[in-house]
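Sanity check. The docking grid for arginine depends on where the pocket ends up, so I'm generating a full predicted complex first rather than guessing from homology. Inputs follow.
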Amino acid sequence: METFQSLLAKKLSEALANAGLPAAGELTPASDPRFGDYQTNAALVLGKQRGENPRALAEQIVAQFEAGDACELLVVAGAGFINFTLRPEAVAQKTMELLRDDRLGVAETRSPRRIVIDFGSPNVAKPMHVGHIRSTVLGDALARIAQFLGHDVIRDNHIGDWGTQFGMVIYGWKNLLDRGALQRNPLAEIVRIYKETNQRANDHPTVREACRQELVRLQAGDKENNDIWNECVALSMQDFEHVYKLLDVHYDLQCGESFYHDRLPGVVERLLQSGIAEISEGAVVVFFPDDPELADRPLIIRKRDGGFNYATTDLATVDYRVNDLKADSIWYVVGAPQTLHFKQIFQIARREGYATDLCHIVFGSILGEDRKLMKTRSGENVPLRDLLEEACKRARKIIEEKNPQLSEDEKTDIAEKIGIGAVKYADLSQYRMTDYIFSWEKMLSLHGNTAPYLQNAYVRIRSIFRKAGEAAIATSLGGVGKKTGHRPVATELTLTHPAEINLAKRLCQFAEVVPQVMNDFRPNILTNYLFELANSFHTFYEACPVLKSDEPARSSRLALCDLSARVLQRGLGLLGIKVPERM
Ligand code: ARG
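Predicted complex below; grid placement will be based on this.
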């Protein structure tokens, strides 16, 4: 199914060719709906290129434009924009097609790729910092969207389960562990002993040395230390799993850093042999003399004491993903502080000749109301688990007020959908590069660009159908007609009211918006769209009676309601957000 945007883009390039002009400019949704539905700057671009009058060029293009049934109006505006307005009949027809389409018009990609997405990736025995929320939520949404578009997605959790912190954890485990506390809250206790040991190691060189010894014993395969390590990883994983269950996030692979441990010597050997790495002051190092930004930032891949590090592991990881997993692309959804690290890793991969497309998907920070990095009152990182549980608690309060007669189970279920949805949406609706302020009031508000507002729009539509009896869908176009194989009662949509036409146009745009998210990894394009869709729906619902109107308007309007609900549900679903049936 072709979108209006791609249809018009095709017609535009035909018109340009017929006018003897080269391809130029873009065809985009109109920036101001008062002037039309789509616009192109082709004549402006050509005017500049050729030193000709853009308005005259625009007239030439319009004269050659054969819109068929799609467009009723082409006007040249301003300095030479061409604006297009769709014909309501064409919109109605496309809407009918969407009603019958499970994918709601979204085409699958013609060039599917295998994409490994590295996201979430928390660290064992270290507090999960707020950055992990963004990575987890953003990575999951991108995975869902890429998959829906037809890519072969592998979700990989690159857990930090190896490294120098374990010397301290093992020392702390042997000397500071409170078993009772470990039972009550394992991760908190592991984090506590790690932090306390870290403190001691800073103050006492003997403790630091003892930690180093524990690490050496662990890496040499000492049984006691390996058992402790195993237990720490398992306990932390339990905590992560709890969070992933709440978030409804799934991984195909959880190849943590320890997975690559045996491969590290080989990586260093290979880089030495190929001359990409060299020995410098006893360490193995890669230099980047040709990159101004990295020129004075050599990367150590084997320390003087023979130990490997985070970078060595990431080099082994690229290898594994390219050669074993056969990835065409690898996306790293990791915060901005690691930008240089990935630059270095990607450069080395390129020098090694990997053709795989490597991409660091960066994001900004979450700030507290004081505009500083979000922390608890005592200055700690906010544990993700606590934050999500708080979200559900607050959502439940809203439901208690709004709909006290619901059963306890229903309340719990709805509170989870709203609370978790609100946290995810608050994140995804921001441009990923900007820092944003975490605000419970804002994200849980039923008004404005929030998950609860969109969920509420969905719920409203569902209640229309409950009121009408689900049978109403049978008379609406497409709906049940499709499922049962019966011909829908009506075969055409009649769109007359401007609010109906506007809503139908929005519904047709879903298929244009979803693939756009991938251009620069911006789920906020989709959230903005869904917000506008909900607004269009509310305008429609206020202006156009649905159940009380006569045929054929009633069926048409029910169909618009049904399709609006489906697009909201699917759109939110692509962001990892669920919709309740009532709230
Ligand atoms: N564990 C790291 C952190 O918490 C993130 C890992 C990102 N992925 C990677 N392949 N380096 O900062």
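Relevant for the grid: The mean pLDDT is 92.
Also worth noting: The radius of gyration is 28 Å.
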